[in-house]
Amino acid sequence: MSRAEPAPGTLGALALVELRALARAIGAEHHAPRWAAAFADLAAPCAWWRRPAAAPPLPSGVSHRRPFSFSITLDGVTLDSVTLDSVTLDSVTLDGVTLDASPPQLRFFLEAQAEPPSADAYWRAGAAVTARMAAQGADLGRLRAVEDLFVPTDPRAPFRVWHGGIFTPKGAPIFKIYLCAAAQGRAAARPNLQRALDRLSPGWTLPDLDRPGLDEWTILSLDLAPDTLARIKLYLLQRDVGLDALERLYALGRDSAPFASLDPALLVDGLLGPEGRRPLWWLSCLHHTPLDAAPTGCAIHLPLQRHLPRDDAARRLHALAEDLRVDPTPLRAALDALPAGCDGLHFASLQRIGDQARITAYFAPRRPDDRPTPRPAAPQDGDP
Predict the structure, then answer these.
(1) pLDDT by residue (tens digit) across 150-185?
(2) How confident is the model at residue 92 (pLDDT cuts 50, 70, 90)?
(3) DSSP state of 294
(4) What are the CA-CA distances from residue 161 to residues 42, 109, 164, 219, 251 (Å)?
(5) At residue 250, does pLDDT exceed 50?
C-alpha cells in the first residue's frame, strides 16, 4: 500500500472504488492505476481522505455533503443533414458511413477539508491540494493573479476552494480550480468577480443576469493551464427560472447554437415533466478564454437529485441522450458499475458546441429515501 493509499472503510477508499468502477465502465480500465494514483496524491492532504465513511461528515459547501464526486462526459455527433443509424462506444454510423466518436471522459471533483474545520483551515488545505496539482503539471499563473479576491474573510461563505480535473489517456489530468465568489461576503461576490475578469480578460463585463433575491453568481472556475484556450468559467445559480431566461443566457455563448436547437421541451418536459412543476433550479455556466471579450459558450446544469428520484432521472436522461444523438451506453454502464448507494445522479449538464451536443452526468450518493428533497431557501452550495 502506498503512502497515500487509504485504509478500507474510509472515504478515500470509497473514492478509489468509484474511480476504478467508472474507468471500467467507460472502457478505460487500463488507465485506472495511473488515474487513481494521481487522484490519491491530490486528495491525501484533505482531512476526509482517511476519515471513516460512516463518520458524520465535516462541514461542506457541496449539497450532497460528500467531499468528492466523479462525472462522465458524453459527446454526440449531431449533423442536421444526415440520419443517425447506430451508435457505439467507439464510433457512429451515419448513412452507412462509420466515423470515430469522441470517447467518454472521466472527471473528478474534490473539496479540500480540514479538522478542526474553519474557513482558514479549509483554505490552507485547498492550498496544499493546489500545490500538488502544480507538482503534477498545473499552471498557477492565472490563479495567482486573482486569488487574493477569494481568500475567505466571511465565515458564512458557502465553501472555500474546490478542485477538479479531467483524466486523460496520456499524461497528467487537465486541472481546474473553483473559487467561491462570496468568500468575502455575498455583497462582494459580483464586484470581486468583475475585478477578477478585469485582471484575466480585460474588456469583458460580467453580464447583468442575476435577478435580486433569485439568482446569484457563485463560482469563478479557471483551467489551470498556460494555453490561451484555457477557459474562464462563471457559474450563476438560478432559482425558479423559465426556459425564456435560459434561452437568453444560452444565446450569449458565441460558439453555442441557439438554445432552442436543443429542443427545450426535451429539457423540461422530457426530464422534469410539465414546466408548471415549480420551482425549477438551474446552475448555468458561461465560459470564455482570455483572448475573448465575450462568452464563447454556455452550459446548463440541472440538479436532478433535487427534482427526481434516481431511477426516473436515469431513464429520462437516457432518453434525452438518444434524442440528442448522444450514445447513452456509458451512462448505463456507469450506473451499473457504481457501488449500491453511490450511484445517484446529482447533476446533468448540457451544452452544444456547433453541431455537437455534450452531456455530463455527475454522480453522488443517493438520498436515504431516494426521493427528491427541496433545498433550503438560501442554499450553501453551487456545485460545478
Answers:
(1) 999 987 777 779 999 999 998 899 999 999 999 999
(2) very low
(3) S
(4) 14, 11, 10, 10, 29
(5) yes
Q: How far apart are CA 118 and CA 77, in angstroms?
A: 46
Residue 283 to residue 276: CA distance in whole angstroms: 19
Considering the domain boundaries, does residue 373 fall inside one?
no
Confidence of residue 98 (pLDDT cuts 50, 70, 90): very low
User: Is 374 within the bounds of a domain?
Assistant: no
Q: What is the pLDDT at residue 95?
A: 36
Q: pLDDT tens digits, residue range 351-379?
A: 876 667 889 999 988 766 666 655 444 34
Residue 5 is assigned to a structural domain of this protein: no
Cell of 286: 458561461
Per the structure, the complete domain to which residue 89 belongs is given by 11-364
| DSSP character string of 335-372 | HHHSPTTS-EEEEEEEEEETTEEEEEEEEEPPPTTSS-
Q: State how far the Cα of 285 lies from the Cα of 295, in Å rounded to an integer.
A: 10
What's the first-to-final CA gap in the chain, in angstroms?
32
**Percent composition of the chain: helix, strand, coil (DSSP 3-state, to 5):** 30, 25, 45
Cβ partners under 8 Å of residue 383, min gap 6: 62, 63, 283, 301, 303, 346, 347, 362
Quick check: is 384 in a domain?
A: no
Which positions ≥6 away from 296 have C-beta within 8 Å? 253, 254, 255, 256, 287, 288, 289
- Kindly tell me the sign of the dihedral angle through the C-alpha atoms of 300, 304, 306, 308: positive
Characterize 16-32 residue by residue with b for buried, 16 or more Cβ atoms within 10 angstroms of its Cβ, and e for exposed: bebbbbbbebbebeebb
Q: Using CA atoms of 218, 224, 229, 233 in order, give the dihedral in degrees to the nearest 10.
A: 0
pTM: 0.87
DSSP one-letter string for 261-293: GG-HHIIIIITTSSTTS---EEEEEEEE-TT-S
Cα 276 from Cα 241, distance rounded (Å): 11
- When divided into structural domains, the chain yields a total of 1
- 141 three-class SS: helix
